[in-house]
Amino acid sequence: MTQFSFAAVFSDHCVLQRDRNITIFGYADDGLRIKVTLCDSAGKILAENCGKSRGGRWEVRLDPQAAQTGCSLTAECADSPAKGARITLNDVAVGEVWLAGGQSNMEFELHNCEEGPAELADADGGKNVRFYYTNKIAWKDDKFFEAEHNTCWQTWESQWKTAWSAVGYFFAKKLAADLGVTVGVIGCNWGGTSASAWMRREYLEKDIELKTYLDEQTKATAGKSIEQQCAEYDAYEAENDIWQKKCAELYETVPGITWAEIEKRLGKCPWPGPKSCKNPYRPTGLYECMVSRIIPYTLRGVIWYQGESDDHKPHSYRKLFTNMIDNWRTDFQDDCLPFIFVQLPAHRYEQDKDFRHWCFIREAQQKVHDTVKNAWMTCALDLGQYNDIHPKAKKTVAERMENTALATVYGKISGEKALPPMLKDTLIKGSAVILTFANASDGFEMRTDQKTLSEYKAMEENQGNKFPENFTGFEIAGDDGVYYPAQFELGGKDAPGKITLTSGNVPEPKSARYAWYNYGPATVFGKNGLPLAPFRTAADSEQTATESAAIQQIMTV
C-alpha cells in the first residue's frame, strides 16, 4: 500500500494562503476517500471537504479563510484498507504565501548577507515569518525521497533560519509588518541555474529557440545509459568538492589572487560538470525534482531573481522567461499568478570584457514587465557589487520587491511610489531626443557614484578601450548606429517626467540608450528613490559577444 500522507510541503507550522480556495494534497492508494478538516485555535471547524485519490495522489480544496494562527489541519482516510488513518498538523497559520524562486542571488543565505548577523541576533526579528525549503536534490533516488520526508516548515525559533533565503526573508518580514499577518516563504531556488531547468519539457519543445536547451542536452548524453551518466556525475562531484576546497584555501591565504592564477595552480575549474540526467543544471531537471513536488500549493505570488545563467543566450531570454511564467501559472492553477522579479544589477568581473550580454537580459526583463500580465520588474541596477556576481547586501532589493507587491498585488501604495522610472515614449525633434518616462511624475534627481564610475573606467582601460571624458551613461546614435555620449537635461517644472538628450557628434539622432553596460554607475533616480531602468529606444545591429566570461559563474552558496 502507498503510505497515506500529506505532501512534504505540508507540515506543522505551515502557512496557508488566506482569502483564496486552499488546495491540500498528498499521497494514498487509488480510489480512497480522503477527508480534510481545518480547525481554528479553539478547535472549531473552519472548513472541511473530501476527495478521492487517483494515481497515488489525493487533492482536496477548502473554502477561503481569514488570516489567523494556531490552527490545525487534519487528513483522514475514510475507506478500507486505510480506514481510520489520520494525520494532524499543528500550529498552522493562515496568511500570505510567496514562493522565492531563481538562482543563487535568491538562494543567498541570511547568515551570509551583509545584514544577516544583526538580523539573526534579534530574537523577534522574523517572528511573523515562516519558511519551507523545497527538497534540494536533483535526482529522484532513495536519498531524494528520504530527504524530502524530512523537510518541514520552520519558524524563527528554528536553528536552520540561518540558511533561509535572505531576499525571501526580508521580503516576507516587511510584508508581514505592512499587512499584519503571518507570511510564509517557499524556497525553490538553486544557484547557477537557467530558467530552462525550472520548466516542463513541453514548454521548451514547442519553440525552436528554446528547444536548443533540450537539443544540447540530448547531444551531450547520446549513447550513454542512465547508469553511466550518474557515475560520471558522481565522479565529477567528488572532483569538484576537492577543487572547490583548494580554491577556497587559496582565496583565504593569497588575498587578491586572480582567477587565472587559481586555474594555473589547480587546473581548470570542473564546475558545472558533465551534462547528464543527474546534473541539476539540466533543462527540466529542477521542475521535475523541486517545482512539481509543491504543485499546486496555493500561493499569493512568486518573487523571482534569476537570469545570470542565461546570459549565453540573452536574445532568447524574454521568450524563455515568458514561457516559464505561463508554465507555472498553468500548473499552479492560477492564470493570474503574480510574478515580481529582479532586473539584473550591474555586474562584471575585473578582467572580463564588457560583453553587454546582461544588457540584453535586462532588456528582456523590461519587455516581460511591459507585456506579461501581472508580472512586475524591480530595478536593481545600482545594487551590483564590483567583481562579484553576488551582492552581499540583500535587504534593499527585497524591500523594493515588497513595495512592488504592496502597489501591484495589494493596492496599498501607488505604483508611482513603488516602481522605477521606465521609458514610456520617444520623440526626436531636430538634434534632440526627448524621452518621456513612466513613474516619474515628480521628476528626477542625480546621484554621484564616483566609486562605480572609477571601477568601470579602470576595467575599460584594462581592455585597451579609451574611456570618454564626457561620459554620462546616456548615448545617442545616428543612421550609422555609432553611439556617442550624450548630454542630458532633466525635465523641468512643466515636464518633470522628461529627459532631453543631445550630442555635438550626432546632429540627426535616430536612437538613444542608457546604462548600456554590464557594470557601470547608476546616476539618475526618480524622486521616489528608485534608479532609472536601463533602456534603448531601438534595436540595432549590435549582437552580444560570443566569448565566455573568464570566471565561471559558480553560483551555489
Q: Which terms would index this structure?
A:
alpha+beta; 28% helix; globular
Structure summary:
The protein has about 550 residues and is α+β, with helices and mostly antiparallel strands. About 30% of the residues lie in helices and about 25% in strands. It has helices at about 105, 115-120, 140-150, 165-180, 200-205, 210-220, 225-255, 260-265, 285-295, 315-330, 355-370, 395-410, 415-420, 450-460; strands at about 5, 15, 20-25, 35-40, 45-50, 55-60, 70-75, 85-100, 130-135, 155, 185-190, 300-305, 340-345, 375-380, 420-430, 430-440, 445, 475, 485, 485-490, 500, 510-515, 525, 535.
Descriptive overview:
- This protein is of the alpha+beta class.
- 28% of the residues lie in helices and 24% in strands.
- It contains 14 helices and 24 strands.
- The protein has helices at residues 104-107, 116-120, 142-149, 166-179, 201-205, 211-221, 226-253, 259-266, 285-294, 317-331, 357-371, 395-408, 415-418, 450-462, and strands spanning 5-6, 15-17, 22-27, 33-39, 45-52, 57-62, 68-77, 86-102, 129-133, 153-154, 183-189, 301-305, 339-343, 375-379, 422-429, 432-438, 444-446, 474-477, 483-485, 487-490, 498-502, 511-514, 524-526, 535-536.
- The strands form five sheets. Strands 2, 4, 5, 7, 8, 9, 10, 11, 12, 13 and 14 form an eleven-stranded mixed sheet that branches. A four-stranded antiparallel sheet has the order 15-16-21-20, with no helix packed on it. A four-stranded antiparallel sheet has the order 19-18-22-24.
- Strand 15 (422-429) and strand 16 form a beta hairpin.
- The two termini are 39 Å apart.
